[in-house]
Design brief:
- The structure is a single chain.
- Helix content is 24%, strand content 45%.
- The mean pLDDT is 89.
- The longest helix is centred in the first third of the chain and has 24 residues.
- The protein has an eight-stranded antiparallel β-barrel with strand order 1-3-4-5-6-7-8-9.
- By secondary structure, it is of the alpha+beta class.
- The radius of gyration is 19 Å and the shape is globular.
- Strand 5 and strand 6 form a beta hairpin.
Length: 141
Amino acid sequence: MRMLELPIAISVCVLVVSVEAEEKAMTDEQQIQGTWQLVAGERHGKAFSDELVKEITLSFTKDVLTTKNKDRESNAKFRLRPETAPKGIDLTMDGSVGEGIYALEGDDLKIIHGEVGDPRPTKFDPKAWPTSSLLILKRRR
């Protein structure tokens, strides 16, 4: 019986390592795809109400970001800039580009961005960027 346990244990370890390697090999553009629920955030220094937080989802599909708030929906083109430090995100809407930064860790996503024309934030500190919006998101399953 013990002779069978070792090959099974090795197979399980190999499977776990290969799944982890596959997840790590995915680009940020691949990992961000899907729908995200807002769990907290603030705009211009004011926290979003619990009611508002429950209503907002963001969906990343290819290079389009769709934001839904109750029955309202808006679309923007997005471009991730993972090569910058911190990682950058550009949102283009109606021909205008807004610059932000993001942190993507598994099912957690954090974005901070200012108004169109504002410089790209350099850290996740809304107090340092008074016209910014901070979004804390969780992947919806």
